[in-house]
Specification:
Layout: E1 3-7, H1 12-23, E2 27-32, H2 35-49, E3 53-57, H3 63-73, E4 82-85, H4 101-129, E5 132-137, H5 147-166, E6 172-177, E7 181-182, H6 186-190, E8 202-203, H7 205-217, E9 222-223, H8 226-238, H9 241-252
Parallel strand pairs: 1-2, 1-4, 2-3, 4-5, 5-6, 6-9, 7-8
Helix pairs in contact: 1-2, 1-7, 3-4, 4-5
Family: Belongs to the short-chain dehydrogenases/reductases (SDR) family.
Protein name: SDR family NAD(P)-dependent oxidoreductase
GO molecular function: oxidoreductase activity
Amino acid sequence: MATALITGATAGIGNAFARELAARGNDLVIVARDTERLESVAEKLRAAHGVDVEVLTADLSVRDDVDRVAGRLEDQARPVDMLVNNAGFGLHSSLLDESAIDTHVKALDVMCLAVLILGGAAGRAMSERGRGQIINVASSSAAIFSGNYSSIKAWARTYSTALALELRGTGVTVTGLLPGWVRTEFHDRAGISASNLPGFVWIDADELVRECLDDAAKGKVESIPTWKWKLAMFIGDHGPRALNRFVSSKLSKSRKKH
């Protein structure tokens, strides 16, 4: 059996990855901050799918914890065949809000620094074995300019492609996942009101994950779910920059004021 390590595995997209990979017969290493919740998720996955699920409690805003997870990825006696760099959280603060600085720093630690360290650890270990897959969860917001979240996810997108190029020819593939609006508790936790969004923009988390895993198996550098988000990303990447800035400005106005 292959083994997948998933960060942020107890909720949202990370939990959807855990359920889908377990259903496909993969053993898991699941990573999150809450040990009790991790154990609960692990027990359900073991019971439902008969796979081995290892629990690894870590706060990815804490460097020592990140290094422990990196050490697990580089343990060649217990090889990890897939890394899903998923842990993260939403940001809905103005770039001018001084009281949000600590939150922005934590976001950079979890969604940039930890991704860099864990991706490097997985890449080294997997390339030594000549096989493996890395999936980095970025966002469609990487194509626009709305607050620090867009900035962070633009970094994650660029990093993922850069890592894919460095690992080309090693047998290790890297796929950046660029989801749009996914039906999870993510937005509520970030204090983002999504109640006015039309139904057609939403993506089911399980559908998202299945499509991403299929894309990763094909060695695609980026995975963008559904035709509507592929179109949105094409417009964001290649459409008029003035239009992009206009849309980004409208979205930014919904953020908390300084």
